[in-house]
Amino acid sequence: MGNVLIIDDEAGIRSILKDVLQDENYNVFLAEDGYKGLDMLNTEPIDLVILDVWLPNMGGIEVLKRIKEEYRDVEVIMISGHANINLAVKAVKMGAFDFLEKPLSLEKIITVVRNALELEKLKQENKQLRNNLFMEDEMVGSHPSMQKIREIIEQSAPTDARVLILGENGTGKELVARAIHLKSRRSQWPFVEVNCAAIPETLIESELFGHEKGAFTGAVSKRKGKFEIADRGTLFLDEIADMSLNTQAKVLRVIQELKFERVGGEESISVDVRLIAATNKVIEEEIKAKRFREDLYFRLNVIPIHVPPLRERTEDISALVKYFMKKFKPPALSEPKVISKDALEVLKKYPWPGNIRELKNVIERVNIMNDESIVSADILRECMPARGKRHAANWLSTFRGMPLNAARDSFEKELIKRKLEEDGYNLAQTAKDLGIYTSSLYGKIRKYAIEIKR
Length: 454
Known about the structure:
Layout: E1 3-7, H1 11-23, E2 27-31, H2 34-43, E3 48-52, H3 60-70, E4 75-80, H4 85-93, E5 98-101, H5 106-134, H6 144-156, E6 163-166, H7 173-182, E7 191-195, H8 201-209, H9 226-229, E8 234-238, H10 245-257, E9 259-260, E10 269-270, E11 274-279, H11 283-288, H12 294-300, E12 303-306, H13 317-327, E13 338-339, H14 341-349, H15 355-369, E14 374-375, H16 377-383, H17 386-397, H18 404-422, H19 427-434, H20 438-447
Parallel strand pairs: 1-2, 1-3, 3-4, 4-5, 6-11, 6-12, 7-8, 8-11, 13-14
Antiparallel strand pairs: 9-10
């Protein structure tokens, strides 16, 4: 029913509270001073702390302060035999759930413990609901590159290290940023996103740093910027390579000093923000072209994460399709639609220049525009973007007018070339993928004069 930690230097109080709470089916942990209590919080899944105000070595108020800083989800009930109104008010202002005087009423203790744990349960449920709403989509896929990304997220999220996410448009860079925030110590605080490419250069500084009333035409009132709004949370600068050099310099200064001034203001504002940045551009080329500051790149690139394009992990398309089919299931259907094998092959052969975002749109269109429970290749092609239809048509047109043997040879040559590229020209692996002997693969390479790149 809940794990309760009792921190009190009186053995008699600890013993009585333990017996009473165990009779109510709570799991009870004991500590005789603040240091041991904090150690136990670090090792046990504590839901609630009953904390004495007067403790040896570290006072109860200081312990309360530490708990609220490091274990914000844990409720604390303060108890004292020498209480006064000022002390009780101070404890509640610091985040204590309640303040009880000794001698303790056991009935009162049971009631307050039950209420505190009910509140904690509601908080956890609300947090889960917020997280479900916060993450519009999930990271789907078992490709080694995705597994590596998940490992990096797990390792880096608990830290405050800056993260630079690289990848093409539509690959899911924002999902990675949100996953890092949700797994961080800042998850209860804001996640603020800024699309640097969507904000005019004349407004980007006001957007990031805020402005004072009258700072420029149209500044009719004081306004907080994104850095200030994200205080204690995470600021996600999407498409940061589209930011002007002048703004890059100011962002670099904030990273270095964690201070800035609003546009038109003189007051220095301090913030505690974790910075995550993303771009679809090749940063090294932007630096070489003097469009991106090298010193800012070094500051941001503490934890680099590369999100691969969908064409490099086509084996994940099946799982992504199932996920989006479930997400966009028409309300009238009891089960999501199923995509046929031939339709899935069409999806796997398409290069997906818009990556996962484009695939998501296609599956949503499939669910809206047809009533069939099984999606055939023909239905799918009707829902593909124009370039997807052209891709399928162009691929088929290459075989038009060919005798069967010539068409078969042309297809076989193209398939072998693509498999070799995918496998990094590892002939043994390609032969295995194609289901033929390595000697047979050698023979076909010679037959079709396929160039082997090393």
